[in-house]
Amino acid sequence: QENRGLPLQRISEIITAVGNALGYAHGRGMIHRDIKPHNIMFTSSGQPMLADFGIAKILNTTSISDPNTISGTPAYMSPEQAKGDTLDARTDLYSLGVVLFELLSGRVPFDADSPIAVVYKHLDAPVPPPRTFVDGLPANLERVMLKALEKNPDNRYQTADEMVTAVQSAIMTAVRTGTVLKPRAPAAAPPRPTP
Predict the structure, then answer these.
(1) Active site residue 113
(2) 49: left (phi over 0), alpha (psi -120 to 50) or beta
(3) What single DSSP character describes residue 113?
(4) Which of 27, 43, 100, 176 holds its CA 20 to 30 A away from the CA of 117?
(5) What is the tens place of the pLDDT at every residue in 95-138?
(6) 160/16 Cα distance (integer angstroms)
(7) Packing angle between helix 90-105 and helix 8-27, nearest 10 degrees?
(8) What is the pLDDT of residues 148-195, one digit of tens each?
(9) How far apart are CA 32 and CA 81, in angstroms?
(10) Strand duo 134-135 + 57-58: pairing
(11) Considering 34, 52, 111, 161, which one is annotated as catalytic?
């Protein structure tokens, strides 16, 4: 059976809805700090909604939580979040970039045997080329993903609006040209030797 991902238009709708929610929160001085698929809920009509502001932080305020603890989900954590640095809205945009990578390719960019190993990959490992995992990915859409996943926040999208606009534009171009993405099935694990 062919491994088909979500339609591009649906991916655009999800990123737009989550990005708009982030833009609203960021405009009011809040960062979410735990953007991941489990925190994207859907209404009965299929409208995506961002949920769980449980570890959200109000910018420029003292955190209720211990400042020396790192909150978030390793597979979606920005490098600055992994380091325990001071965070701003761009940490959420990195995490949304991971979600975009997963929506398009069917997998997160970094995987490892332990959560700490995943965190180290976010800090140091280059992002694997998305084309490695999905056939038919247009170059402009790949560039959008890679920009969202820049290690240095200064090289990322600076606002949710900017990222949403870039995603919408790249996907609109892909849809207009009839692009169909085909995520590749993960390579099968080698069989275990029998004792």
Answers:
(1) no
(2) beta
(3) S
(4) 100
(5) 999 999 999 988 999 999 988 999 999 999 999 988 888 888 89
(6) 9
(7) 170
(8) 999 999 999 999 999 999 999 999 999 998 888 887 776 555 555 555
(9) 12
(10) unpaired
(11) 34
What is the pTM assigned to this prediction? 0.85
Cβ neighbours around 186 below 10 Å, total: 11
Give the pair of three-digit tokens for residue 93.
Answer: 């945009």
Residues 23 and 161: beta-carbon distance below 8 Å: yes
Q: Which long-range contacts (CB under 8 A, 24 or more apart) does 168-177 make?
A: 168/12, 168/16, 169/140, 170/138, 170/140, 170/141, 170/143, 170/144, 171/8, 171/9, 171/11, 171/12, 171/141, 172/12, 173/138, 173/140, 174/8, 174/138, 174/140, 174/141, 175/8, 175/9, 177/138
The one-letter amino acid code at 117 reads: A
Chain centroid to CA 55: how far? Answer: 17
Angle at 138 between CA 173 and CA 79, to 5 degrees: 110
Cα R_g (the chain), whole angstroms: 17
d(CA 82, CA 123): 7
DSSP 117: H
